[in-house]
Amino acid sequence: MARYEENFKQMIVELNQTGRFVRGSAKEYGLSETTIYKWKNLYLPNQSKGPTGKEVAELRKENARLKEELEILKKAAALFSWKT
User: Fold this and answer.
1) Does the pTM of the predicted model rise above 0.85?
2) CB 3.0–4.6 Å: which of 21, 51, 61, 63 could bond 55 by disulfide?
3) For residues 48 and 28, what is the distance between their CA atoms, to the nearest angstrom?
4) Cβ pair 42, 52 in contact under 8 A
């Protein structure tokens, strides 16, 4: 499985946005059409002006981190209140 740089992925998506067909870009750069469509979903907002797939993934990761921090603080508060 090939790994591509973020700027390369964004370039391909931008090419598509400027009027290039996915099929042509896929053939020229040796990519599958499915890959390009996945990148479009990742970097372009939905029609409803919602966040991109990448933004959603980042928000989920941050949410999980914040939940962990909250649990740690709850446990610390319980320990301090128990000792007094």
Assistant:
1) no
2) 51
3) 31
4) yes
